[in-house]
Amino acid sequence: MRDTPVITIRHLYKDYPTPAGSFPVLKDVNLSIYPGEFVAIMGPSGSGKSTFMNILGCLDRPTSGDYELSGKNIARLDKDATAKLRGQTLGFVFQGFNLLPRMSLEDNVALPLVYSDVPKTERQTRARQLLDKVGLAQYAASLPSRISGGQQQRVAIARALVNRPGLILADEPTGNLDSHTSEEIMTLFTSLNREGITIILVTHEPDIALHAGRQVRFRDGVIVQDMPTGCNHEEELAGAAP
Amino acid sequence: MMFTGMFHEAWSAMGANRLRTALTMLGMVIGVGAVVLMMAIGQGAQNAVKESIDSMGSNLFVVLSGSSMTGGVRSGSGNAPSLTTADAEAIGELPGIAASAPTHMGMAQLVHGSLNWNTTVYGVTPSYLDVRSWPIVAGDNFTESDLRSATRVALIGQSAAENLFAGEDPVGKTLRIGQAPFQILGVLGRKGQSLDGRDQDDLLIVPLTTAQRKLFGTPFQGSVRSIMVRVERAEVMPQVEIAINALLRQRHHLREGQENDFSVRDLTAIAESAAETTRVMSLLLGAIASVSLIVGGIGIMNIMLVSVTERTREIGIRMAIGAREIDVLTQFLLEAILISIAGCLIGLMLGVGSAVLIHLSTGVPIVISGSSAIVAFLVAAATGIFFGYYPARKAARLDPIEALRYQ
């Protein structure tokens, strides 16, 4: 296919301890994602997609199996190293936007740079550039509460981009937005993907997943479907819709 | 994470909930204020005691002659004619003695013009002023030749001078004791009250021989009532006391088992016990004040714990975008330290302010030292670190997934 994968998952298991014994959430997941892909991860609640996403984001560790991110095996890194990886290799976009309410939009966008020791003037320049890119430069000094949800999500995307990561992980980024705004956000993701950024998106909305080039479907902790977006997907999705 | 960035973060976090920050600080303010105030008062008391010790002269012994017995009636110490000028000279030869001054004193009515005043007259040698570390502020001391020829000259204390000369300069003036005229050679510096409240400045000093021959008389030639001895260093005082006892017993031909016809008293012992008492008092005050500092520290810990819980989601976000444990730890620790230091500064000003106020309104002596300010400052920083560490560590150890889910 293409060159080396940015993400390689092999025989990944994740169990959660419960009073009744350990409960398997992910069972033998194998997946490779290549640079420049736009992947939608789908599945009903409890299918394990959120856990999978947390592991991809280095927020959680697998019980067993290998996860290689940009050639590094995550299981062998300590906490500080994974924190650095999160800050510099990955960008997160959350369903609830997760901007810090006390900070101006510019400071919010610049925050990841604070943790990677970028000097203040450069932090400001890069934050302004990205706010400009998502079309919100005029609100740079405002607090998050002053702008709409769609605008907040665009700021969150700017924040995810500020460390120039190769990979963006978006967990239900349109879950709190109306369909029109969702469409705008997805257009933004598509254009970022065209610039070469790999995007992995968790969603349970079929029409959101249509923007992705590849759809991976989870059910009960295993991947039940992995196919490019294209012919006859509509039947599949219709069948899967609740 | 860079320090200026963290500082800014901590500052804005403190500004986010001003009332709470102010209340947290209040604990530190009261704690530090109390410590500073108590230290100022304690030090003031210590200084006052030290001053009165210094005014008496340091490392002093007084050798008193014994009591006499006439027909079964015993007089008090200092009345028996047992000590002599020669004894004083012999004591002066002992090793470790800085100076010894024989004293012969009594009460006399002083007259100058229309004013008169009853005071104690001390007959001493010129070295007496050295022994007492007593300066002359106007005029001069009398000399050895005055002593040899028993001239009628005198030095006058401040209180006696005020009562007798009423604002005039006494130097060169003449006063009378009975019918005998005395010329004032000099005025002594002010010593103030002694530890027992006696006015040390109410006195007249004349040459020893003048007192012996022309004022009070003596049972025999050269007899004195007491000898003041100043020792070179405080450490040798016990040895010197033993040496004086041995020397005088030998000079007075006292046999083994016979009682001393004199007594040696350590004047600094009383003063030192007074100093010790005030030292313990100020320590006690400091200890009580420190308790409020600890309470203030616990207040900080309490609020920081609440703050960590409230900001769980924020911590999760920060971790997701690359904050390491140490970054979160320093952020919260810095916040606690900033609150403590700000509280400390305000407390310092408040403590100094109220100390000054107390001094002005009640006259209680106070001492505000730079070292107590520095100590208070360090204690505040240490309190911030000590009581801020646990909440900060709790924040740093949060699981990012749990923290992000927290509503």
N/C terminus separation of chain B: 26 Å
Radius of gyration of chain A: 18 Å
Instruction: Tell me about the largest β-sheet of chain A.
Output: 6 strands, mixed
Number of helix segments of chain A? 8
Total number of beta strands of chain B: 14
Percent in helix of chain A: 25-40%
- The helix fraction of chain B, in percent, is 55-70%
> What's the end-to-end separation of chain A, in Å?
34 Å
Structural class of chain B comes to alpha+beta
Query: What's the shape of chain A?
Result: globular
SS-derived structural category of chain A? alpha/beta
Number of strands of chain A: 10
Strand content of chain A: 25-35%
Q: What are the salient characteristics of this protein?
A:
heterodimer, A: 242 residues, alpha/beta, four-stranded antiparallel β-sheet, 10 strands, globular, B: 407 residues, alpha+beta, six-stranded mixed β-barrel, two-stranded antiparallel sheet, 14 strands, elongated
Question: Can you give a write-up of this model?
Answer:
The complex is a heterodimer of chains A (242) and B (407). Chain A is built from eight helices and ten strands. In chain A, the strands form two sheets. Chain A has a six-stranded mixed beta sheet, with helices on both faces. Chain A has a four-stranded antiparallel beta sheet with strand order 2-1-4-5, with helices on one face. In chain A, strand 9 and strand 10 form a beta hairpin. In chain A, helix 3 packs across helix 4 and helix 3 packs parallel to helix 5. The radius of gyration of chain A is 18 Å and the shape is globular. The C terminus of chain A is likely disordered. Helix content of chain B is 56%, strand content 19%. Chain B is built from 13 helices and 14 strands. The longest helix of chain B is centred in the C-terminal third of the chain and has 44 residues. With 407 residues, chain B is α+β, with helices and mostly antiparallel strands. Chain B is elongated. At the A-B interface, helix 2 and helix 3 of A face helix 1, helix 10, helix 11 and helix 13 of B.
